[in-house]
């Protein structure tokens, strides 16, 4: 399965969330794969590396209703840590403690 596809739909707030994460020293890769989280976020701190999968959703609306069927299926099948969801720049500024 390819992690890239054509014309992925990105959330309008994704760019400012990525900018806020990068300003805090995180490395951010955008991913475009059906159902897979939007971002892979990493940081090296005191010789240890950390990686998070992050889903970006708009700030308004019931969170569970914002997930697509493919995202719900991926999350149900995923055996690792549950991906984080960021909706605002303030959450990105508190990440990973948001």
What does this structure look like?
The chain is α+β, with helices and mostly antiparallel strands and 98 residues long. 30% of the residues lie in helices and 23% in strands. The protein is built from 4 helices and 4 strands. The chain has helices at 14-23, 63-66, 69-77, 89-94; strands spanning 27-30, 39-45, 48-56, 84-86. The protein has a 4-stranded mixed beta sheet. Strand 1 and strand 2 form a beta hairpin. The relative contact order is 0.20. The model has no long low-confidence stretch (mean pLDDT 90).
Summary tags:
single chain; alpha+beta
Summing up helix and strand content along with how strands pair, one would put the structural category as: alpha+beta
- Averaging pLDDT over every residue, what do you get? 90
Beta-sheet strand percentage? 15-25%
Order of helices and strands: HEEEHHEH
Number of helices: 4
Query: Main sheet, how many strands, which sense, barrel?
Result: 4 strands, mixed
Lateral strand order in the biggest sheet: 1-2-3-4
Record field, number of beta strands: 4
Shape: globular
Short note summarizing the structure:
The chain is an alpha+beta fold and 98 residues long.
Topology:
Elements: H1 14-23, E1 27-30, E2 39-45, E3 48-56, H2 63-66, H3 69-77, E4 84-86, H4 89-94
Parallel strand pairs: 3-4
Antiparallel strand pairs: 1-2, 2-3
